[in-house]
Amino acid sequence: MAYAINDQNKVRVGVKASRTSHAELFTAFEYGEELSVLLTLREEYSADSAEIRLYCDDTGSTISIEGEKKGEAFLFSLKTEEICPEGQSFGLFYYAFYTPSFTVAQNEFGEGFVIAVPGEEVSKFQLSVYREGTNKPSPYAGGIIYQIFPDRFAKGKGAPVKEGAVLEKDWYKPISEYQAGPGMPVKNNHFYGGTLWGVAEKMDYLKELGVNVLYLNPIFEASSNHKYDTADYSKVDSMFGGEEALKNLIEKAKEAGIEIILDGVFNHTGDDSIYFNKYGNHNTLGAYQSKESPYYPWFCFTSYPDKYESWWGISILPKVNGNNDQFVDFIAGKGGIIEKYCKMGILGWRLDVADELSDKMLDAIRDRVSSVRKDGLIYGEVWEDASNKIAYSHRRHYFNGGQLNAVMNYPLKNAIIAYLHHGDAEFLYYSMRILYGHYPKAVSDLQMNFLSTHDTERILTVLAGSPEADHSNDYLAHVSLTEEQRKSAKRLLRLAVLLLTTLPGMPCIYYGDEIGMEGYHDPFNRQPYPWGREDREILAFFKETLSLRKKYPMLKDAYYKGIGHDNGVFVFDRFNDRERMRVVVNLSDKPYKVVLDEDDVVCFAESGQSVLGDTLVQPGNYSLLYFKE
Fold first, then answer.
1. Are 359 and 397 in contact, with CB atoms under 8 Å apart?
2. 244 is catalytic
3. Smallest Cα–Cα separation from 97: which of 114, 80, 85?
């Protein structure tokens, strides 16, 4: 059994499930499992009795269970069917241990213990129970995702330019359309002419990278270049090549062994949509035009027609009522939008602002995707720990309720960047401990792990430490990294890609990161892919590092265990019943000697330095040690 142990090693806490291998690594368990919780006390903290108190987050009730004393330890037996709320096959719980003289709970690092006097408020351990039959292993787990902003990747044979759109004829010209100042409007109607035809022509390139899932930013009809202001869900935007181009892309992708995930923007539409029709540009009776519109119940007006709820107060993005039966059925009902594109051959969806979608909508999307594709995937845009997320005063049950397969792993991105910037191995170590422990294993294996996205600065710019604070968009639109900044950032980027490849989940490459594209915040992180002007050195180490997933198949779904953190050195294991890989990354200023057990026999070794040497990892380098039983 594995234990959570604090620095003083005063107590140990372990949880083991009846039917789950390596369950002691996790705090999330399937409904129907019986759990054994073991609390081990050292002699100076001995007690004659102890109880565990579980606080049910869903009901606010408390369940107390007496422990069975076994030497210096107490064993607590929990049945998930009995602790979950009546009539509900999932739940979120927090617990601590209580003896007559002290309390044992969790410390701020998600492990160890806090010893407090009785009655004192303490931080509690987390325990999740998820619906039986959900969070099952996926054949796509541990693969490689590639994210594309369609207007900026590749032109292909092109497509007609819509009225009102401004087409930039020079593919390599820096972005010139941006906000003049914070909060000021921008049309977002400048296009570079990227199409789905163009994406289809790059399948060989994506296959060489090892990509098996392609994530496309929105492709539905809309007036903007980003397409988050949907005008018509039933149509693929004509400037991207329309539905014919999507079908061709799906066909070419499948030939290359690549599946496609679409961006589902179901929390809001555009005000210039067939549903809202604020400007009368469409041959429909929109909600803005009349209360008699069939779409009127979809939206929330506070003073008709000019005052209505919108996403973050942005009036061009009127918010849709996710509990409206008509809208939910339109999106996720029989013959609806989800079914239309799933039947066309896509693998699944990335749900924009998942925190703002109703449970009714999430449940309906899950059911509809599953009805078409048993292996279909649903990702959520969630920026925090999704296992215990509270959004708008409402606890979400993304995994416990079986709504999502995984989420975008922003906490991991932040932890990796903090480590590379400041050598903060401790923060990365404990972030991984908490995230990996809180999520079901099947979720961790599918997590979308990335270094940058269309919503964040480019990773190379971030790693260069080039600050954007107090600079205008006019400045950011034209500034580039210095040669020295870029050289320094590339050294760190090697380690970032190594971590992304060897940690649990699916490495997700934002188009152009693999060839060294730079860029500050939106829209400067959305420059066109500079075909023919790639940084070949960066591309080479991306390909080489990502190929580890193919060379060592265990990395796709092996268990994770943090081994240690020491002054900038981060060490962890990936393992299964037959194999183990030890990963050592050294951001300290001294060589780090890898200490192995006497019976460890290294079968293969990879290293970021030219020679592995006497198991010494030099500053700024890494080593992978592979063991086979």
1. yes
2. no
3. 114
CA 298 to CA 323: how far, in whole Å? Answer: 9
CA distances in angstroms from 562 to 21, 295, 398, 573, 581, listed in the order given: 18, 52, 26, 6, 12
Alpha carbon separation from 314 to 32, 161, 307, 309, 318 (Å, rounded): 45, 26, 11, 9, 8
95: amino acid identity, one letter: Y
Strand, helix or coil at 618?
coil
Measured at the CA of 319, the angle between CA 247 and CA 284, to 5 degrees, comes to 65
Catalytic residue among 151, 271, 352, 356, which? 352
Check: CB of residue 211 under 8 Å from CB of residue 146. yes
Per-residue exposure over 217-245, b if at least 16 CB sit within 10 Å of its own CB, e if not: bbbbbbbbbbbbbbbbbeebbebbbbbeb
> Each residue of 352-406: pLDDT tens digit?
999 999 999 999 999 999 999 999 999 999 999 999 999 999 999 999 999 999 9
Q: Which two tokens stand for residue 193?
A: 């002419």
pLDDT of residue 10: 63
Sorted by where each starts, the structural domains of the chain and their CATH numbers stand as 4-130 (2.60.40.10), 268-319 (no CATH), 560-628 (2.60.40.1180)
Residue 352 falls in the annotated catalytic set: yes
- Contact partners, residue 454, CB within 8 Å, separation at least 6: 147, 149, 217, 226, 510, 522, 525, 526
**Cα–Cα distance, 264 to 350 (Å, whole number):** 6
CA proximity to 516, closest of 452, 421, 423, 471: 452
Q: What is the pLDDT of residues 192-227, one digit of tens each?
A: 999 999 999 999 999 999 999 999 999 999 999 999
Q: pLDDT by residue (tens digit) across 280-298?
A: 999 999 999 999 999 999 9
Residue 76 has a CB neighbour count (10 Å cut-off) of: 20
pTM of the shown model: 0.95
In which band, very low, low, confident or very high, does the pLDDT at 112 lie, cut at 50, 70 and 90?
Answer: low
Q: Are 428 and 570 in contact (CB under 8 A)?
A: yes
| Cβ proximity of 268 and 318 under 8 Å | yes
CB atoms under 10 Å from CB of 6, counted, come to 17
d(C-alpha 196, C-alpha 174), whole Å: 22
- Which one from 30, 229, 259, 381 is the annotated catalytic residue? 381
Give me the sign of the Cα torsion angle 540, 542, 543, 549.
positive
